[in-house]
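Case study 2.
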Amino acid sequence: MNTIKGKVIVKNETIKVTEKFSKRTFVVEVVGKYTDEILIELQQDNCDLIDKIQLGSEVEVSVNLRGRKWVNPKGESQWFNTVVGWKIDILSGTALQSTSEKLSDVVNRATIADEFGDDLPF
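Prediction:
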């Protein structure tokens, strides 16, 4: 299993390539001796994995490396690689859903407090 650890710096929209195939890309910045910006592709049902992750979050992405050959009109062979993500773990930062859930809890508590005053049993 291959993993990439870094900070999410770009999230692109899902693209419907054909009737049966969708893909979505995002970029992870990997800091080391030299900083790399790795383009990762999500496919099909995995396109929504990046939805809840905020830009700037540190993540670990489980990926598969795929390669393919293409022969151009001149008959010359070229090879292309794709980094395909299938799992994303948040290492630091917040998921968007958990942030909105926390905000809704605060709003609900404030609404209840306004309605019943400060005499709440919880």
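The chain is about 15% helix and 50% strand.
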